Amino acid sequence: MTLQDARTPENGANGDEKSQIGWHKGYVSGSRPDLRVPVRRVHLTNGKDVTLYDTSGPYTDPNIETDVRRGLAPLRENWIIGRGDTEEYSGRPLRPEDDGLKHTSPRGGLKNLDAVFPGRPRQPRRGREGAAVTQLAYAQRGEITTEMEYVALREKVTPEFVRDEIAAGRAVLPANVNHPEIEPMIIGKNFLVKVNANIGNSAVTSSIEEEVEKMTWATRWGADTVMDLSTGRNIHTTREWVLRNSPVPIGTVPLYQALEKVDGKAEELTWEIYKDTVIEQAEQGVDYMTVHAGVLLRYVPLTARRKTGIVSRGGSIMAAWCLAHHQESFLYTHFEELCEILASYDVTYSLGDGLRPGSIADANDEAQFAELRTLGELNTIAKRHGVQTMIEGPGHVPMHKIKENIDLQQEICEEAPFYTLGPLTTDIAPAYDHITSGIGAAMIAWWGTAMLCYVTPKEHLGLPDRDDVKTGVITYKIAAHAADLAKGHPGAQEWDDALSDARFEFRWEDQFNLALDPDTARAFHDATLPAEPAKTAHFCSMCGPKFCSMKISQSITDRFGGDEGSTPEEIEAGMLEKSREFAESGNRVYLPLAN
Amino acid sequence: MTLQDARTPENGANGDEKSQIGWHKGYVSGSRPDLRVPVRRVHLTNGKDVTLYDTSGPYTDPNIETDVRRGLAPLRENWIIGRGDTEEYSGRPLRPEDDGLKHTSPRGGLKNLDAVFPGRPRQPRRGREGAAVTQLAYAQRGEITTEMEYVALREKVTPEFVRDEIAAGRAVLPANVNHPEIEPMIIGKNFLVKVNANIGNSAVTSSIEEEVEKMTWATRWGADTVMDLSTGRNIHTTREWVLRNSPVPIGTVPLYQALEKVDGKAEELTWEIYKDTVIEQAEQGVDYMTVHAGVLLRYVPLTARRKTGIVSRGGSIMAAWCLAHHQESFLYTHFEELCEILASYDVTYSLGDGLRPGSIADANDEAQFAELRTLGELNTIAKRHGVQTMIEGPGHVPMHKIKENIDLQQEICEEAPFYTLGPLTTDIAPAYDHITSGIGAAMIAWWGTAMLCYVTPKEHLGLPDRDDVKTGVITYKIAAHAADLAKGHPGAQEWDDALSDARFEFRWEDQFNLALDPDTARAFHDATLPAEPAKTAHFCSMCGPKFCSMKISQSITDRFGGDEGSTPEEIEAGMLEKSREFAESGNRVYLPLAN
Question: What ipTM score was computed for the predicted complex, to two decimals?
Answer without folding.
Answer: 0.90
